[in-house]
Amino acid sequence: MLPTSPKDVSPTELVFRSINGSKLKLIDKSAKPRNVIKFVLHKDVHLNVNITLLLLFATAVLWKAFNIFIPFISCTLVLILQIIRFVTSVNKVTLTVVKFVGIYTERQRIFYGPSLCEFIPWDIVIDVFLNEVITGQKVLYYLTIITKDSIDGRNSIKLVPLFLNLMPERKCLEYMYEKLVGLIAPKRMKIWR
To answer: So where does this one cross the membrane (predicted)?
Structure first.
């Protein structure tokens, strides 16, 4: 049952951090009957090119003074790569879970490229959990959906990690997990029996 009036939805805005320390804003637009959960995770992305511009200026001076052209080209390439990374990076992820329908995710880029959307039907969702991953000397956490998948007539399990581009901290993922597990847990009990 979808909310029909603004009174059914009580948006909550929380501030968390990503694993890199940048600020993330989580907007919880869950419906009161608890049949619809909607999270919008937003990151304010800024183009930080001060050091590159300073190096570019310094190498331009070196190029004019001593005729050294290679550092100028390398600084220009670094600046272009930073701009491309900024323009194509994901800054907003929306997760919508509708009980008995499915899970819908949408990743929006800043300027360039279409939104990336994925829909997981409700009948293949098994569970949701926080996945702990060790990479190098870091411990990362992912909110992950477990789905059942049928390949060539054989049943298998597929893990679908969420919010990979924004990498929110553990507290943020725990907040979302507590809401999601209440919606998916009754389903989990039926499937695992």
So the answer is: 45-63, 69-87
According to DSSP, the β-strands at 125-135 and 116-121 are unpaired
Main-chain dihedrals φ then ψ at residue 92, nearest 5 degrees: -150, 130
Give the start-to-end residue ranges of the domains of the chain: 6-45+89-192, 50-86
> Rounded distance, CA 191 to CA 97, Å?
18
How close are the terminal C-alpha atoms of the chain, in Å? 27
User: Using an 8 Å Cβ cutoff, are 75 and 62 in contact?
Assistant: no
Report whether 24 contacts 42 (CB < 8 A): yes
3-class secondary structure, 112: coil
In angstroms, what CA-CA distances link 18 with 53, 64, 91?
26, 42, 12
Rg of the Cα atoms in the chain: 22
Name every residue whose Cβ is closer than 8 Å to that of residue 153 and which is 6 or more positions away in sequence.
none
The DSSP call for residue 188 is H
pTM, 2 dp: 0.74
Identify the H or E element spanning 16. strand 12-17
Which residue type occupies 162? Answer: L
The two structure tokens encoding residue 137: 């000397």
Q: Which two tokens stand for residue 188?
A: 């989990």
